[in-house]
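Incident log, support desk, overnight shift.

02:14 A customer reports that sequence design results differ from what the structure should imply. Their input is reproduced verbatim below. On-call engineer (initials T.W.) acknowledged and began investigating.
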């Protein structure tokens, strides 16, 4: 079997193990394949071989079920639960890669759910952002709009998950918009939404604020992806251009808004970190990677280090106090947390918002190159990430320096509005000038977010380490 590991052209590390001979002493496998396997049997045999080689919790992997089982059930049965909350099998490898890169069929809006009140079971959904070029944007949906019904049915604790599933196809929403003069939500006409295939650009917003003597660069980044098919480094190149602009404008403070950033590709994390860390070269360690007991037996995999890149757009030398500010929430996960952890040995990383998700392990996207009938893609957890100082203690998340929950506000103001709650909290830390017009906090119960249902959420995809296992 030959397993293909996803990687991009701009590789800072290449580990090529042309062939690894798997001895019976290492694996409990038969020497010869079982003949005349069924379709499921072939797929499940491949799944087992993959997991026997790369799964991080190899020593704790569960016993396999019948080879004739559904492949998704077979894969799930192997996982070391509840420790492993992250490994997934996907029905189509190419669709998996597309979704990890922000390509999917949808109406183009993300939501956060909350209880309407502790005295009833109604559920409301706040639009957190709409995507450029989407049906939602064309219909005028805005961040902060409130949804109460989908296809004419009121959302409540019993049905909201089922109703949210209808968003994958054409649907109708009942909409309310906040009126600041009356301090209340007013109804809008119902909105009919179609779905289309979108390529979401993770570089959502960037701007520069000048407040007193501070020049503050602010970037909203929704996931880590270098680009899309045919434009392999498009998004990373855009990020480089944003930082070149920040540098040209002479900013002295930087805010990264990761509140909805659930992760993505490692290479883009390296790219972004290399634009921020002070005084680094391509010899400095951004992250270290450790594998399972089997793979760590090979010299090439005992000391894997991912280095920074030397980038002319780097801002490290001009950031005041050697500090970067990061806006976080419970949806700040994986590759976002890799940035926080990887930068901490080099600078002060100041967090504003919520406790992050807590994921210090990574995956590699794997397809079966030998069996063309097998369309499945695997994203097993294969590694744990450490920073330069061998720290990896964020499995329960990073605690913010300053806590804040945007749902505590009457409405969600637009990104880049200096009165937007989490941005305002961060600006206060930078300027040292607290606001005098605090709004009364609301006690809303957060029920989850559409961000958490994205394939890429909670994923750290190693697209830089290339190794082939052949036996």
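02:41 Re-run completed on a clean worker. Output:
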């Amino acid at each position: 079997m030959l397993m293909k590991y996803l990687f991009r052209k701009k590789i800072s590390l290449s580990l090529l193990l042309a062939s690894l001979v798997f001895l019976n002493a290492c694996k409990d496998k038969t020497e010869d394949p079982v003949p005349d396997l069924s379709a499921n049997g072939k797929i499940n045999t491949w799944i087992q071989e993959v997991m026997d080689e790369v799964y991080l919790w190899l020593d704790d992997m569960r016993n396999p079920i019948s080879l004739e089982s559904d492949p998704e059930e077979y894969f799930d049965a192997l996982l070391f639960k509840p420790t492993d909350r992250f490994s997934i099998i996907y029905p189509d490898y190419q669709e998996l890669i597309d979704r990890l890169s922000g390509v999917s069929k949808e109406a183009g809006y993300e939501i956060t759910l909350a209880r309407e009140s502790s005295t009833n079971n109604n559920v409301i959904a706040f639009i957190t952002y709409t995507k450029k070029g989407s049906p939602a944007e064309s219909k005028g949906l805005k961040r902060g709009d409130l949804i109460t019904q989908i296809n004419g049915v009121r959302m409540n604790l019993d049905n909201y998950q089922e109703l949210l599933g209808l968003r994958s196809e054409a649907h109708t929403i009942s909409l309310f918009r906040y009126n600041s003069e009356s301090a209340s939500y007013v109804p809008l006409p119902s909105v009919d939404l179609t779905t289309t295939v979108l390529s979401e650009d993770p570089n959502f917003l960037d701007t520069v604020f000048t407040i007193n003597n501070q020049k503050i660069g602010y970037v909203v980044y929704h996931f880590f992806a270098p680009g899309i098919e045919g434009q392999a480094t498009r998004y990373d190149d855009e990020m480089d251009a944003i930082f070149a602009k920040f540098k040209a404008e002479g900013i002295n403070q930087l805010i990264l808004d990761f509140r909805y950033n659930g992760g993505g590709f490692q290479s883009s994390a390296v790219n972004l970190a290399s634009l921020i860390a002070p005084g680094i070269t391509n010899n400095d360690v951004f992250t270290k990677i450790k594998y399972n007991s089997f793979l760590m037996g090979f010299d090439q995999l005992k000391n894997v280090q991912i280095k920074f890149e030397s980038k002319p757009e780097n801002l490290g030398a001009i950031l005041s106090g050697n500090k970067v500010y990061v806006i976080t929430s419970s949806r700040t996960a994986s590759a976002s947390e890799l940035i926080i952890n990887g930068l901490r040995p080099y600078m002060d990383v100041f967090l504003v918002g919520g406790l992050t998700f807590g994921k210090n392990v990574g995956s590699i996207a794997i397809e079966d190159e030998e069996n063309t009938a097998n369309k499945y893609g695997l994203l097993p957890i294969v590694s744990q990430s450490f920073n330069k100082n061998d720290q990896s203690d964020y499995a329960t998340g990073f605690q913010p320096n300053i806590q804040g929950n945007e749902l505590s506000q009457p409405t969600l103001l637009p990104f880049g509005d200096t009165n937007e709650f989490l941005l305002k909290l961060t600006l206060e830390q930078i300027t040292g000038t607290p606001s005098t017009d605090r709004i009364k906090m609301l006690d809303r119960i957060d029920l989850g977010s559409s961000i958490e249902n994205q394939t890429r959420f909670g994923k750290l995809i190693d697209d830089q380490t290339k190794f082939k296992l052949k036996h």
